[in-house]
Amino acid sequence: MKFALAGYGGRGDIEPCAAVGRELLRRGHEVRMAVPPSMLGLVESAGLAAVAYGPGTQEQINTATDFLLAVQNPIGKLREVMDHVGQIWAEKGATLMSLAKGADLLLAGMSEQGPAANIAEYYGIPLAALHFFPAQVLISSSGWLYSDITKEVADAQRRALGFPNTTGPSPQQLVDGGSLEIQAYDEIYFPEVAADGRRPFVGALTLELPTDADDEVLSWIDEGRPPIYFGFGSTPVANPDTVAMISAACAQLGERALICSGANDFSRVPQSDHVKVVDAVNHAAIFPACRAVVHHGGAGTTAAGLRAGIPTLILWVWSDQPSWAAAVSQLEVGCGRPFFAATQESLVADLRSILTPHCVTRARQVAAQMTKPAESVARAADLLDDTARLGRFG
């Protein structure tokens, strides 16, 4: 069978789609994927055929900034933002139309479900949605303005395809249309999300790709006390004092720090003997050798930390990240606070709180309840296989 996959955003947005795509490919299916230009290398390294989709990551960040400005100054910015989003949707739609032609199923990541739903309807093929956090979190964090903007551009796309306007937001369309909604996280995080049969939980989907730094990092870890990992994924935290704050806090506690720079440039920041800075690591290989993890609250990083059975501190910035901070606090495996509110003093206090025996024990207990990575991708691929074969879900 043929599967078309569409994902947009940073690595945390793309990797879940790529992970299940790789499993479908391993099963002998034809898989085609659309991702931002900056993510082509990641997807191709997993053995998947990919095409560039939408603007680059930096333009995406600029668009998000414009959206936030529109919220603060809707009269001055709203029309400009809507025109820009409409242009991006039109460009993405053309790519997705070509990608989905002849496919047996179209799988869309969180941000792509609106345009994907219209194109799946046009071709008469089943649509599957991949949620790596609850859809209601996206709606509540983006607010009415985001819904109004996306509805207008979605309706423009539908009119171009010869369809009537939508009657509600994209998540509700999926429910009403009977589409498969894969929850790519464990139910333990959000027990209030109803698993009604149309929202099956599979656990976090990850590629677990090795990096060039893994062996060097593991050797450094073996030289002393297990470190605390600090990383912010694709989230920019362009503050040169961040490394100094981490270094000072860990020195005060007698801990070592492993810092993953991710989207940030820490190359010119002075380093100490108890601090190691790298660009990226394989979380699955490195986290089990660490004392704790401190990160931005991305869905994939949160799952990797909990699967490793170590405590978590989330310093969140925006979007779904506060919801993961609330989840780790509720599970008693860690805590969270806004990144902009973090100081050396608060970091020391937070690290002390997550390194307590109770938190360490709870982290190990929760790890035993997490879905294993291989099981997660197998479950997701089974659901997609069945839906494509039947031409529908359920």
Shape: elongated
Side by side, the strands of the main sheet go 3-2-1-4-5-6
| Mean pLDDT score | 85
Mind telling me the C-alpha Rg?
Answer: 21 Å
Low-pLDDT parts are: none
SSE sequence, one letter per element: EHEHEHHEHEHHEHEHEEHEHEHEHHH
Portion in beta strands: 5-15%
Largest sheet: 6 strands, parallel
In whole angstroms, how far apart are the ends? 19 Å
- What is the number of E strands? 12
Describe this structure in words.
The structure is a single chain. This protein has helices spanning 11-26, 40-45, 57-72, 74-100, 113-123, 135-160, 170-177, 214-222, 241-253, 283-286, 299-307, 321-330, 344-354, 357-367, 373-390, and strands at residues 2-6, 30-35, 49-52, 105-108, 127-131, 180-183, 228-231, 257-260, 275-278, 292-295, 312-316, 334-338. The protein is elongated and about 65 Å long. The protein is α/β, with parallel strands linked by helices. β1, α1 and β2 (30-35) form a beta-alpha-beta unit. The strands form 2 sheets. The protein has a 6-stranded parallel sheet, with helices on both faces.
Based on the model shown, name its key terms:
alpha/beta, elongated, single chain, 394 residues, 15 helices, 12 strands, six-stranded parallel sheet
Layout of secondary structure:
Elements (H helix, E strand, L loop, with lengths): L1 E5 L4 H16 L3 E6 L4 H6 L3 E4 L4 H16 L1 H27 L4 E4 L4 H11 L3 E5 L3 H26 L9 H8 L2 E4 L30 H9 L5 E4 L9 H13 L3 E4 L14 E4 L4 H4 L5 E4 L3 H9 L4 E5 L4 H10 L3 E5 L5 H11 L2 H11 L5 H18 L4
Parallel strand pairs: 1-2, 1-4, 2-3, 4-5, 5-6, 7-8, 7-10, 8-9, 10-11, 11-12
